Automatic annotation (TrEMBL):
Name recorded for this polypeptide: C4-dicarboxylate ABC transporter
Family: Belongs to the bacterial solute-binding protein 7 family.
GO CC list: outer membrane-bounded periplasmic space
Annotated source species: Elstera cyanobacteriorum
GO biological process assignments: C4-dicarboxylate transport; transmembrane transport
InterPro entries: DctP_fam, TRAP_DctP, TRAP_DctP_sf
Pfam families referenced in this protein's UniProt entry, alphabetically: DctP (PF03480)
PANTHER family, sorted: C4-DICARBOXYLATE-BINDING PROTEIN DCTB (PTHR33376:SF7), PTHR33376
Keyword Transport found: yes
Signal sequence residues: 1-25
Keywords of the record: Signal, Transport
NCBIfam families, alphabetized: dctP, TRAP_S1
Amino acid sequence: MKFRQTALALSAVLAVASLSQTARAQTDKPIIINFSHVVADDTPKGKAALRFKELAERSTQNRVHVEIYPNSTLYKDKEELEALQLGAVQMLAPSLAKFAPLGVGEFEVFDIPYMFPSKAALRKITDGKIGAELLAKLEPKGIKGLAYWDNGFKLMSATKPLIQPEDMKGLKMRIQASRVLDAQMRALGAFPQVLAFSDVFQALQTGVVDGTENPPSNMVTQNMHAVQPYATLTNHGYLGYAVIVNKRFWDSLPSDLRSALDGALKEATRYGNDIAQKENDTAIATMAASGKTQFHTQTPEERKAWRTALAPVAQSMEARVGKGLIDAIRRETESLPSD
């Protein structure tokens, strides 16, 4: 732990020392944006990051270079936000649950099961006033929130069929760090296990955990289907990301570069969010064709049973994420049809 903190601190000192030089309006050397994330290049997030790199470099005429570091090659889940705050890395796209340890627990509203009845309902929140207000809460932490990126709605997978909610009882289920996801698994009678994303395949392979929840694209790109014989298309929860930058770095950039990068990010966001559903559909087909995972599509009765089992989670989390926020999202989305 001390070694990691020392390494991060050293990286931060070097980053701060070079900040005034790299962020000048006129410079002979390009400004480097190190963009770290924990998933593969061929996921929706990975592809959106690569598109942002292409667009950012083109729109700034190579005054900015974006270096992409996928698959936790720089930092794992628990390390990356600290690295960003220290200035050791400039850009991230962490899952929304990652902000709760910083004291912004409101982002865990996205983890509440069945909170968003459709993609249209989700988009109304992320593209609207509520989404903007949530991103603004990161600024006192030294973080500038720029955009929301989709991965998609999640499925449940395990070493046994998951037809009814009670089939989850007693299973060790991997989750990312989130009080809401912890409560979700406990409501189903499972035992939540917090693990870094990069460690999940090995944990599934060795039996450290019995199952997990993921959008299909994450599952197939990490080869989880090879060690998960059963999966149920529950669509019980959403996994999305916030694209964020070190605020001091962002504010130090010349205004014309910020404008160009903002435009590049908007286009990359449209691209990534448009392909997310297609990527997940393709992932399901790929995994099914492999013969390694048997997929179950829920009947309306089964879906109702899962909704009923997980309904208490939202109420139990009101104090943590804010009852007002939960109510506001429901008011904004109640008139929209379910997918």
